Amino acid sequence: MFQFRSRTNTRLRRTLMLMIFMVIAASSKAMDSLDVRVGNFYPNYYKNAEQQWEGIDVEMAVALAERAGFSPNIVEIPWSRALIMARRGQVDLLANVNISDERSEYLHWIGPQRYTQMSLIVTRENAELPINSLDDLVAQCKSLGLKFGIQPNVIYGDEFAERLRSDNEFRACAEESTGPQNDDKVLFGRLLGYFDEPLDVQAERRRNPDYGLVVHPFTVIKEPVFFGVSKASVNADELKRLLVAYQSLVADGSLDAIARKWTF
How many other C-beta atoms can be found within 10 angstroms of the C-beta atom of residue 133? Predict the structure, then answer.
């Protein structure tokens, strides 16, 4: 009996949430648009063969905008410039954003959108290397005579950052380069591995099961990312529509369904 009431209450809450959304959307102008920032970074954002934008963060941002009754206007902007434009009110919605005090000055937060992590990417031959800590990582780098790759301006967690700052031995094992360069260096045996979000490698392995890179179990950070909404361009009523839309997407499983398309 208790379980029945619980399920019924859940359905009622979801129904009410959707009704609230429909009232807000119906009261808004049908042609309202929202500038949605994308980059060119597979599989988060990319153009398919028909030159239409796809990717996990594109689909989540578009779902949010459309559920809130907006017409999404997708704009390709480099990340650093997008933050400046959001501060100025020149772009409305960012996806896959880490919260910080500085960004909170000019962005409202909706989410979490999803969870992201930084895992060690290695070759299939090294998929079971005994690495469970940063000390293990250093030991394997010394044993194999190979460094690990990191990317500039990427957050890998407090412990990782502190080791880079204060531990000469750890810092000597790290090599900084961009994601595509890291892929090639690992595949050709010039790096032990590199740290990145697993989405790229998982997507490549779906397309080609023989792809040479895999995701090692060792992960240095896992944290939520959010939608960032420009305080300068999105007013209180529009923000409310987005918040209600987000709750609706969570309640009916739409965000989870998008995430499952791109992860395993």
Answer: 11
Cα 233 to chain centroid, rounded: 23
Are 10 and 26 found together in one domain? yes
What are 73's two structure tokens? 């206007």
Distance CA 197, CA 120 (A): 9
Which residues touch 258 (CB under 8 Å, ≥6 apart)?
A: 56, 59, 60, 63
With a cut of 70, which residues of the chain have pLDDT below it?
1-31, 179, 264
Closest CA to 117 of 137, 136, 98: 98
User: Quick one: 89 and 70 in the same domain?
Assistant: yes
| Structural domain span for residue 162 | 117-222
How much of the chain exceeds pLDDT 70, in percent? 88
Is there a single domain that holds both residue 24 and residue 65? yes
What's the total number of domains in the chain? 2
Query: What is the DSSP secondary structure assignment for residue 125, as one 8-state letter?
Result: G
CATH of the domain at 11: 3.40.190.10
Reading across the β-sheet that carries 93-97, which strands appear in turn? 71-76, 33-38, 93-97, 213-230, 107-123, 193-196, 148-150, 174-176
Q: For the chain, what is the mean pLDDT?
A: 89
DSSP 99: -
| Per-residue confidence (pLDDT) for residue 2, from 0 to 100 | 38
Q: Is 98 helix (H, G, I), strand (E, B) or coil?
A: coil
